[in-house]
Write a structure and sequence with these properties.
single chain, alpha/beta, 5-stranded mixed sheet, 5 helices, 5 strands
Length: 144
């Protein structure tokens, strides 16, 4: 989660919401990393999780990431939860829960829905206070 937090804080330079993600390979090595780049790239799909999954697929040379773990500072949205399922990620580790737009247990539970072809184990609340603080500070600064 420390590496994901480092990615999240790098977002502050571009004005993007500070969310970071890393994909760990089967040996625990980082095979992909990403941070929100919607503002930086003018791309609505440039979420940390999507970018980390793309980087991992590129590194491993395959789209099936069925032996990897996705670590992210904020509970994924519907799009990112769907990408996690489609990448066949078996385990998701998240920091802060997102009660407004979370799709891994808060508002929706896309990753464990029995109607999809793959389910993801969710381990939530890892370093939750730190992950939440980065987001709270970002939004407090933007409100004032």
């Amino acid at each position: 989660m420390g590496l994901a937090l480092t990615e999240a804080t790098a977002c502050l330079a571009t004005g993007d919401v500070p969310v970071g993600a890393v994909v760990l390979g089967p040996d625990g090595d980082v095979v992909g990393a990403g941070r929100n780049r919607r503002e930086a790239d003018a791309d609505p799909t440039a979420h940390a999780e999507v970018l980390a999954l793309r980087a991992a697929a590129q590194t491993l040379g395959r789209w099936r990431l069925d032996d990897c773990t996705l670590v992210v500072t904020l509970e994924p949205c519907v799009m990112c939860a769907g990408a996690t399922v489609l990448a066949r990620i078996p385990r998701l580790v998240l920091g802060a829960w997102d009660p407004k737009a979370g799709a891994c247990g808060s508002q929706w539970d896309v990753v464990r829905d029995s109607r999809v072809n793959h389910r993801v184990e969710v381990i939530g609340g890892v370093r939750e206070d730190e992950c939440g603080a980065v987001l709270r500070e970002f939004f407090a600064a933007h409100r004032s």
